[in-house]
Amino acid sequence: MSEPAEPTVAAAARVYDYMLGGTHNYAVDRAAAAQTARSFPLAAVGARYNREFLGRVVRFLTGAGIRQFLDLGSGIPTAGNVHEIAQAEDPAARVVYVDYEREAVELGQRILGGNPNATAIRADLREPEDVLSRAGLLDFGEPVAVLMISVLHFITDDEQARDVVRKYVGRLVPGSYLALSHLTWAGGRAGTLQRETSHVYNNTVAESLAIRDVEQVASFFTGLELVEPGLVPLPDWRPDDPDYVPDEDDVPRQVGVGGVGRTRLDVSSDL
Ligand SMILES: C[S@@+](CC[C@H](N)C(=O)[O-])C[C@H]1O[C@@H](n2cnc3c(N)ncnc32)[C@H](O)[C@@H]1O
């Protein structure tokens, strides 16, 4: 089936790519990004915080001995891809990228051409059985890190989001990990701006956003042990800079949290 050359509806993957300075986006995506930027000028900074969080998470996980990654909602391949970081540590590290956006996956496949240990598949992460059956590159008898970075807020139904997470985590052996980041509500003026922005976003981009409370995000880690420092604003999670001090006035820092949970070594998952 041929796809239209120029999409008429913005897509989350391409809006995010544009915010990160990428080139894989269309006029409709740039217009949505510009509208978002008008109501929430610091959205692009938040996108960068998220991508940097992802990089630190993958370095932490490879340091912890993880050699298999299932990156759900991986987005358009942009600088600092998971396989680049993991395979720099160990070329045998295996990565499966999953996204439902055609262009994100096609670009991923092109970038990964000739890489025997990484692949990109087009699938909907809300269908874990399908995704897991196609992630044959990964051995689920060994520890795997499931990454859900800035994607769960696109599953607007709370129960469905929890169920989806449970199904992936339920497949993991002890010593595996779940890493996620998620948009959360800020207080005060930042919260007002955020409400306006999510309204704009929900009216211009194909996907709607479910911004959640930190407690709701924490519930995705039920049955897992959160590694230090827990579920925190993205720049605060294991910062590279030893002199890093959280800036309480930094608005983009207030609109999302991230964390990493480990399946327990002593008992199998009780989910
Ligand atoms: C904001 S981007 C995040 C990209 C990457 N994880 C990161 O943090 O840099 C969200 C991505 O999730 C994808 N996505 C949203 N819902 C999805 C679903 N149900 N199944 C697969 N991909 C999905 C979008 O297409 C988009 O590429």
Automatic annotation (TrEMBL):
| InterPro entries xrefs | SAM-dependent_MTases_sf, SAM_dep_MeTrfase_SAV2177_type
Ranges for the region named Disordered are 237-271
Q: Name one Pfam family in it.
A: Methyltransf_19
Designated name of the protein: SAM-dependent methyltransferase
Question: Which lineage do the record's taxonomy fields give for this organism?
Answer: Bacteria, Bacillati, Actinomycetota, Actinomycetes, Pseudonocardiales
